[in-house]
Amino acid sequence: MKMKISGATSDSASEWLQSLFAKHKARSRRVTAAVLLVRTVILVLFVGLWEQAGRSKWIDPLLFSYPSRIVNLIADMVRDGSVWPHVGMTAGETALGFVLGTALGTLLAALLWWFPFVSRVLDPYLVVLNSMPKVALGPIFIVALGPGFMSIVVTTLSVTVIITTLNIYNQFREVEGGFIKVARLFGASRLQTFRYVIIPASFPVIISTLKVNVGLSWVGVIVGEFLVAKLGLGYLIIYGFQVFNFTLVLASLVMIALVATVMYQLVAMLERRLTGGRRER
Amino acid sequence: MPEQEKLRLRNVSHVYVNDSGASLAVESLDLTIAQGEFVSLVGPSGCGKTTVLHLIAGLLAPTRGEVSMGGKRVSAPSTSVGYMLQQDYLFPWRTIQDNAAFGLEISGKLSAETKRRVGRLLEELELGGTALKYPSELSGGMRQRVALARTLATEPDIMLLDEPFSALDMHIKLQLEDLVWSTIRKRGQTAVLVTHDLSEAAAMSDRIIVLGRNPGRIRLELEVPGPLRAALPMEARRHSAFQPLFDQLWMELDDEGDGDGKQGGGETVEGGGQHEDEN
């Protein structure tokens, strides 16, 4: 709000507003700095305590390892290059998993929207499928599709597709009736309504489902790799477990955390770019 | 003035059927509207006003009877009918010019020429300079003007106004009434306005149709006196013939709406925020 007061009054008024604003900014900067500080302290304390506990044998280092060992192991694997095939394989499977999962889920949701009869028929089946732990189907996929990339991706899809379908279909149905009415009043066909109204209105939800699916896909991929793989971070975990190398297990977990974070940030960036121009009312 | 028939409802009844039963919303309605005429439908809540508008627009098919436009039976919505809703329903993901051109895009009439027409329309409605903005950046009155531009862009010859001013602040509502009224007159369009606001009906129309409660039937038709018809709504409100017409309408609805009390209060005079939802 701008004030239109003449002469000295206006100057002093704007100075006053400025000083209030400056105070507000300084306060919010202080809070941000405090948050960062406490965060860092927690991390340092945790890592430091873990290191100390492992070295002084307060905890069993064979089981819990400690940070410097884990970092050294990762550094070694990076140096000799043996880590990359594992990371690449797992990241590839996961990326394919969440992209395909979101695409297939959206397609199924479109089908349900298009044929309300089908949606009514399938409703209980979808609910049951959704509440079932679908990774349990993993062994069947492995036998059917052979141990390897394909069965891992399908395991991942089994985790993501149903929930994606349900979420996006719900969003399709919740699109503001007035928007659909506007389209109908101009004589829009069902396909046009879908293309010009339903999809754009649901777009933010589709993208945020993509984000949720990043997390779900990691579950599918790691479980899939537990079951069959000869390559990948999930495989490293199982291998480390079998040879009782828990440093390797923890190192793999750390790498999963890193790669998953990077992936999530990339998708979040994509989301901001794609939905940047629009603002909901 | 040679009166050419534009719209005709012949013995139209409409029944809503759903899981909780079947209800008669409009019963045996006969109505003829001439080319270029401005007709208002008023009546108590639930009298089927909006249903009548939906039937004319082709959004609903009459359960019995026939709706015809220019002698042709109405079977589906078309771009020769423009419909303004109570809310603007501008798409938040489209810019103002894309929102205004939406009807053209849907009907496959988007071209460089029609895009220029949209641009001129936005100018005419004092929305120049907002073309590339998004709806969220505009005020309520501006947004409803964009909705008007969207409706006018396909050059309809009938305008259906479904309480388009009821969600607006009083002074913006009065301004918009003038604007809508003059754009419709300038284009020689036929218009049907559904409203709760008796003064709005009296200020804008040539003829006012009072519908009775459940099911909708015509209870009374009032011709608006000539001087009121010719004046802008804002001026019509100040005309000496305005108050008698308003009083007559109010008496009529007061009789009808006993017990309900909704039509009696000063709220109706001011066009309060109530609205019916008959979808």
Poorly predicted segments of chain B: 259-279
CATH topology of the largest domain in chain A: MetI-like fold
Q: What amount of the residues of chain B lies in strands?
A: 15-25%
Q: Can you say what the CATH homologous superfamily of chain B is? A: P-loop containing nucleotide triphosphate hydrolases
Please state the average pLDDT score of chain B: 86
Strand order of the largest sheet of chain B: 6-7-8-3-9-10
**The CATH class of the largest domain in chain A:** Mainly Alpha
Distance between the termini of chain A: 21 Å
Supply the CATH superfamily name of the largest domain in chain A. MetI-like
Fraction of residues in helix of chain A: over 70%
Radius of gyration of chain A: 26 Å
Biggest interface, residues from each chain: A-B, 23 and 26 residues
Please give the domain count of chain A.
2
Q: pLDDT average of chain A, as an integer?
A: 90
Q: Which secondary-structure class do the elements of chain A indicate?
A: mainly alpha
Overall CATH class of chain B: Alpha Beta
Radius of gyration of chain B, Cα only, in angstroms? 18 Å
| Order of H and E elements of chain A | HHHHHHHHHHH
How is this structure best summarized?
The complex is a heterodimer of chains A (281) and B (279). Chain A is mainly alpha-helical. Chain A is built from eleven helices and no strands.
Question: How would you portray this structure in words?
Answer:
The complex is a heterodimer of chains A (281) and B (279). With 281 residues, chain A is mainly alpha-helical. Chain A folds into 2 domains: 53 residues; 208 residues, MetI-like fold, CATH 1.10.3720.10. In chain A, 83% of the residues lie in helices and 0% in strands. Chain A has 11 helices and no strands. Chain A is flat and about 75 Å long. Chain B is α/β, with parallel strands linked by helices and 279 residues long. Chain B has a single domain, classed as Rossmann fold (3-Layer(aba) Sandwich), CATH 3.40.50.300. In chain B, the strands form 2 sheets. Chain B has a 6-stranded mixed sheet, sandwiched between helices. Chain B has a 4-stranded antiparallel sheet with strand order 2-1-4-5. In chain B, strand 1 and strand 2 form a beta hairpin. In chain B, helix 7 packs across helix 10. The longest helix of chain B has 18 residues. Chain B is globular and about 50 Å long. The N and C termini of chain B lie far apart (37 Å). Classes of the chains: A mainly alpha (281), B alpha/beta (279). Chains A and B meet through helix 8 and helix 9 of A and helix 3 of B.
